[in-house]
Structure formats: structure tokens, C-alpha cells
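so the lab meeting is tmrw and i was supposed to have these ready like two days ago... anyway. pasting both below. for each one the top line is the aa sequence and the line under it is the C-alpha cells. i havent really looked at them closely yet so no promises
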Amino acid sequence: MTAAWLALAMFLGSPCGWLAPLAALDMALMLRLSAAPAGRIRAALAILGTVTAVVLSYWMMAATQMGQLLGLSPLESAQRLGPVLAGELVRHMTNGWDVAFAALALVLAWRFGR
């Protein structure tokens, strides 16, 4: 999901925060297909997977932007990027809608992950 999110974000030139709920639904579906037992554990795994997908996607977007400026590949830039710089880049590229979609994604992960 992170690779698809990053590719679409770079193609459109925006963070595409609306993909966070899709990441949550994807995680819930993958947990159901893997026959994970229903209940709180599966819901927690869905939330954890969704948080991981969102954080990793935004980290890679920040790393890709920084890497383009420095002539580094996205993976090289992601390894060298610090949390403070990544946080600032993400803060400047996102808006309230992106945060709202991320919050919605957590609710959807919990609901469909059960």
C-alpha cells in the first residue's frame, strides 16, 4: 500500500491523504483473508497496520522530496532522513483534510478489523 500511495502522491504532486481509509480497508481485508481470529486482537492489528502504512507513506513522501533535491534515491534519502526534518516536511505538505482522513482510517480499521 505504501508503494502505491507514494507512486500516486508523486504523480499527483499532493500527499493524497484520502488513501488512508483505503489503507485501513485493505489491512482489514488482508487480516480477514489470512483467517486471523475475529475480535480485539484483529482490530488492534488492523489499527497497527494502518498506522504503519500511514506513517511509512508520509515518511517516504518526505524522503522522496528531500532525495530529489539532494540527488539521492528515495531509499537512500529515507535512511538518512531524521524525524525532525521528516516531521517538518510532512507538516508543510499536509492540511486538515489529510489529518481527518487519517483519523477516519483508524476508525475504519477498528470497525472492519473486528
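ok protien two:
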Amino acid sequence: MKDISRHPCFNAEAKHKYARVHLPVAPKCNIQCNYCNRKYDCCNESRPGVTSTILTPLQSVHYMKALSEKIPNISVVGIAGPGDPFANPEETLLTMRLARQEFPDLIFCLSSNGLDLAPYIDEITEIGVSHVTITVNSLTPETLAEIYRWVRYKRIVYRKMEGGRILLEQQLLCIQKLKEKGITVKINTVVCPGINENEIEAIAKKMAELGADTMNCIPVYPVENTEFESLPEPSKERMREIKSSIAKYIKPMTHCARCRADAAGLLGHDDLEAMTMIGQFSTLVMNRGEGRVRVAVASNEGLLVNLHLGEARRVYIFEQSKNGYHFVEIRQTPPEGNGMERWKELAEKTLADCQAILVAGIGQTPMKVMQANGIKVIQMGGLIDTGLDAVYLNLPVKTLCRSEYTKCGDSCRGTGSGCG
């Protein structure tokens, strides 16, 4: 198991000393639980699936910076919805990458139902996610059919036992793969009286066999306008019995606070001012480039600025360092043919941490989208370092050799609305 000395959710002794923050960047969900009503604007409920707002990846990092000044003892940053992180994989992964860059010493964790997690396990491992929670509510498709209204997997909606079978299959696969990567795994199980309460011990035994590290049994919370709104919440005595029974197989978690998707502060004692702060950041239009330190380049080989933005299948990312300019990575650009959406995705996601882009040419439409998102566009030809000097050293653009590109190829209409 990874070090949990600073993780309040995995270590009861840490909850009085270390704070955590959940970033609500994942609004979409891929399953419908019969006990869940995801309210985005409720400030009076403390339970999973509730948040006061949704943040973009860039907004969430700006929020984190401000929050860390107010709550200096934050040790954990996580994503727990309000939907599922991997029904929103682009937003989730970009948020984690941006947050890792700004807060390399924090613990990174995710909470998921596991349905769509498997394809991203290598990537979250590379980012440095060390703790993952998977919600497993039964080991039988029959019971799962009672708990979930539907499951959407690979763009197909499944219902009843077929949905339960697919969900369980993916959950078991993910737990095995996560443990192979050395990631600490916590199992959440929602105890639903008369439905799965007699299966909890069997779940604990199976999870222990798969190598899960701890298990959190959560009493169902009756919520209005859900299938289970009339289901009684299990008694404290019944929950003590269940936790005692699973202790034979796996370490039970005993201090769960049923956290919101935008929780911030000590476990069980959320910081009320953080709710006001997060609302302020959700209304910000991140269009001035503050806090962005990187530069994207449309280049064939990573040495020269020599591609029109429309023909660039990838961009090279650079940043300034103490020893000059540092190449960071190559990023794929969105596919052609989506018109305005292509440029919005490029600006808002691919280049979310970039203050500028160097191109040999650009159409009017992508130019407007880049500028609206605070990304400075420099049209030029020649060495990349020359363009980087213009960005980081504020050299006048007139010293650069601007290309006369107007189109990105013979088949291009030259409108900048997205190549067909």
C-alpha cells in the first residue's frame, strides 16, 4: 500500500490534520444509480453527487492555487464527480496533469464506478495517481439490476442483468489492473437494506482476494426523486455488524463523511468559505492567459515553425527553464472536419496551459478562437527559439519572418472553419 500517513480518507489519524479538496470537473455519468440524484446547485446537502458548480480543468487549477493559500494543510486533490471521472476522461486527465504540474507534492486520487476506467489506468499511473476508489455494490448481475437503472458502455445503453454483468466485469478487471500498477485501492459499497445488505461479506472476501486495501461500507442515503427514495437507511447497529463481518477479510474504513463532489477542508468539517470561492472561479472566463507558462508550436520536426495550424496534426510544447527553453511533449491536435468545435477543443483542452502558439499561418476563425481563449498567436517562419524569444523575452514581432500562408493545402477552402 502507498503511504497513507497524509491521506485523511484512507487514514483516520490523518483526518484531523490534513485537508483534501475534490475538483468537480466531471459532470457526465455512465450509469444511473437508483439512489443517486446529481444536483449541481445544492449547498445544503453533504453527499456524493452534489456540487455547487462545475469547473473546467483550467478553472480548477486556479481555484486550487487560491484555496491552497487559505488551507495550507491540503494534502490530497481528487476527482469524484459529480458524475464519473471516466465518463469525462479528457477533463479528468487534463485536470490531473495541470494540477500535478502546479502541485507536485500532493497526493492524487480518483473515485469511479470502474465502468470506463480500464483504458486509462496506464495514463493515470504515469500522471502519478496513487489512490483510486471503486464503488462495488454486488457480485451478482441480478442484484446489480435492482441497483442500477442503466449502464452505458461503449456508447450502448444496457439495462437489467446485462448492464450489471458488464459493470461488474469491468470493475473486477480494473481492480486487478490497478493493483498490478501498485495503486492503493479502496472499495466503496452502498448498503441498501433488502437489496444487497446480505452480500457485503461476500464482496469483502472477493475484494481482498483481488488485493484491495480497504473497504468503506456506506449506508444508503434516501434522496428525493430517486427509485430508492423510500428505502430505509440502515441503522447504526446494522452498519456496525456489517463492518465487523468484513473485518475478517479486509480493513474496514470507519470514518467516512460521504463527501460532496466539491468538498474542501478537513474530512467531516468542510470549509464553508471554499464554497463561495469555488463559485467565483466557476464564473471566471479564463481568457487572459494568466498562469499559463507554455508555448505550442506548429512544426514538422520540432526545430522550425513551418506548418499552417490547419495542417498541423500535432503541436510541440515548450516552456522556459533556468537553462533556456525546455521541450515538454508532443500533443495531438483534434481531428479535421468538425469546424468551430475543432478549434474550441484545441484552445480549451489541448492548449489549456499555453499562453501562445507559433504557426506558419492561420485562418480567421481559429485566430478568433485562440484569442478569445487568451492564447497569443504569432505567425512566422524560422527557428522555434526565435518565436520563443518573442513570447518570453517580449521581443517585437516585427523581427520575425511572417509566412504568407493563407491555406493549409490544395484542398483547403482557406476559411479557417475546419478542414474537411
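from a quick look at the 2nd one: The CA atoms of residues 183 and 342 lie 35 Å apart. The chain has eleven helices and 19 strands. will dig more after coffe
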